[in-house]
Amino acid sequence: MNLIVFSGPPSSGKTSVILKTIEALKGQDIKVGVVKFDCLYTDDDILYEKAGIPVRKGLSGALCPDHFFVSNIEEVVKWGIDNKLDLLITESAGLCNRCSPYIKEIKGVCVIDNLSGINTPKKIGPMLKAADIVVITKGDIVSQAEREVFSSKVNSVNPTAITMHVNGLTGQGTYELSTLLMDEEKEIDSVKGMKLRFPMPSALCSYCLGETRIGEQFQMGNVRKMDLEDR
Question: CobW/HypB/UreG nucleotide-binding domain: from which residue to which, for each copy (predicted)?
Fold first, then answer.
């Protein structure tokens, strides 16, 4: 089975791109399933079910979504193997922008949209910087000049990735994307022993553990203060 990790900021069009890409993969007799990761809520699993795609979802709730992802990915892979999938796609809702869910040896796809702001490529850090493929969406509602400027910003953050323009509504570009996902040399039956491409946030603070009171006496663990002195 191949495993592909999709990530991207909320509302960037990840689910639409994945659905259209799976349509193209089905035409190649490739059985695909999806596991959706989110923090508090998602009904994207209903869209996958309506399309006849095997799907599971996981909500991290009060837990760090990045830790939730990495704590469950081995079981997720086992679910894909048990369901005899040729390709398993995980979709994560942008996580915290500080991290990336990508795994070494596993292909990572970042979905980002033209309307997210000209500086967004710099803001989302390793989620974009560490991706193998960058999919830019919503190009049909901006000008050619805006598309080129945004694409240039993406390339300045990740010059080695394959950058593609895809329309998640019409499916334009998804067949080309589908041809980049399957790789016989990337077949896996486990991710045990593999490593993340980027480390998770280090240590914990009292607020990670449920503290709600404000004040220095309630701040413990990994605490960093801003420098607010005049310059």
Answer: 4-162
Do 203 and 220 touch, CB atoms closer than 8 A?
Answer: no
| 101 CB neighbour count, 10 Å cutoff | 27
Task: For residue range 35-83, list pLDDT tens digits in order.
Answer: 999 888 889 999 999 999 999 999 988 777 777 888 899 999 999 999 9
128-172 pLDDT per residue, tens: 999 999 999 999 999 999 999 999 999 999 999 999 999 999 999
Gap between the Cα atoms of 229 and 222, Å rounded: 22
* Separation CA 176–CA 24 (nearest Å): 9
Could you report the per-residue pLDDT of 77-113, keeping only the tens digit for each?
999 999 999 999 999 875 566 677 899 999 999 999 9
Q: Mean pLDDT across the stretch 174-184?
A: 95
> CA 55 to CA 13: how far, in whole Å?
18
From residue 90, give the alpha-carbon distance in Å to each of 73, 98, 120, 122, 128.
9, 19, 22, 23, 16
| Strand 107-113 with 162-165, pairing | unpaired
Within the chain, how many helices (H) and strands (E) appear? 7, 7
The upper half-sphere exposure of residue 41, i.e. CA atoms within 13 Å in the direction of its Cβ, equals: 0
The pLDDT of residue 3 = 97
Nearest C-alpha neighbor of 163 from the set 171, 152, 172? 152
- pTM (two decimals): 0.89
**Distance between CA atoms of residues 101 and 127, nearest Å:** 7
Q: What is the C-alpha separation between 108 and 6, in angstroms, rounded?
A: 6
